[in-house]
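[AMINO ACID CHAIN]
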Amino acid sequence: MKVCSQLIFCALLSSISSALFASNGQKSEGYEIANKVIIESTILDEKRDILISLPDGYESSNDTYPVIVLLDGKQNIEHTVASTRMLAKWRGVPECIVVAIPSTLRLRDFTPTKDSSHSNESGGAEKFQQFIEAELMPYIDKTYRTHPFRVLVGHSLSGLFAAKQLLTGNVFYQAYVIISPSLWWQNRVLFNDIEALNERASLLAVPVYFAIGQNDGDGMKKELRDFFKAIKKDDETASDITLHEFDGEGHMSVTLQATYHGISHVFQGAKYSKNSWDDFTSENFTSFLKKTKQTFGSSVTQTGELYMDLAQFLMKSNRYQEAITVLDANIKAYPDYPLNYEWLANVYVLNDQPDMAIKLYKQAANLALSSKSFGSAAHDRYLQEAKRLINPVVVNTDILRLYEGCYISDSGSVFRFQLQHKNLIGSREGWSDFRLFADNESNFYTRVEPRLELMFKDRAVEITAYGASYHLKKGNCF
């Protein structure tokens, strides 16, 4: 096999038909999403164009990445790359290498059996899979930092090809996204493979996402519904196998949504499930993060939103040490974001570890100067927070006792404050209890959401939250 590097394949994500050159002959500002190589295949006895899209951070990392093997690659690469990048940033899906295979003779390459009524060249699916396994992927694995988790994505005839690989229990693929497969092929010949299966364990061991548009035509929806039912056989343990029908979508238009949701589905095992939160332990969480990297590649990480939501969930029960585990993992995943250091610093303060918090605030200050989104104002604020901890204001407990009690606003909102272990603790219905920190004998602030500033004076408290102020008078809560 001989591999030749070729010209860069460029396209705008927003349009398949985007031009590569402006009308005046000058090259336009395109968005480069893939490189093209040519594989000289001895198995297929032809040259095949291959489009390879690497994750945004590939060149600046040493990570390994799962591979999406995308059939009908030329018409599907733009939205597939857009989906993988979006999902990696915001939904906790691993960054992926997309290997897109443009089609040449689809009736030859994707059909599992010969049917001369359609094409004398049909029935070449087995040989096409040999090409992928023996020629294409060895080159990809040798050239790029791949992880051996491969997702096969196919639509229509290439969906038929993917369904055939699923039925054979091909361990070469670890997940499937099968969209509007042409299961009508040769009088539903693929259904014979289901009936011939002695063991279904291999089918239930991998995540599979089937999809179709509600507006798809005859020979498509019924066949897919029957196929899905025959595979799953009402087995509730096969939760990784699902079928989604999209309202308002036809045979071709469904690919955009189906690919996005399909990729999200087959990587759902990479996300720390909310079902695990109640039984959270630092050991189990750390073990989960390690296991996902072993399964999906070292590039996999949880989203910043998940880290923050989980940490806040733990903090509601004063599980500060466990929240520290989560937020420390957040910093390791996103080391260039100053707020991550601030959030962890605040939890260290609540856990009575001010020295660790001071160190983190100083790190946040240094990062803020180099960040386009923060700058000198954030830098100064973080240093001020560090000074607050280096020289903390301690208010006499006799004064703090004066602030204990209930405070009621004109609208009926009630805040309670009480002294616990020399700290003033606030509470409000529907909120987690919050600890107050002093700037002086009458002015206080909180370190958890919602961030409050409080000024006690004359049996009243002025509470400021996000720029809005509220006046509450001391009263009787009972």
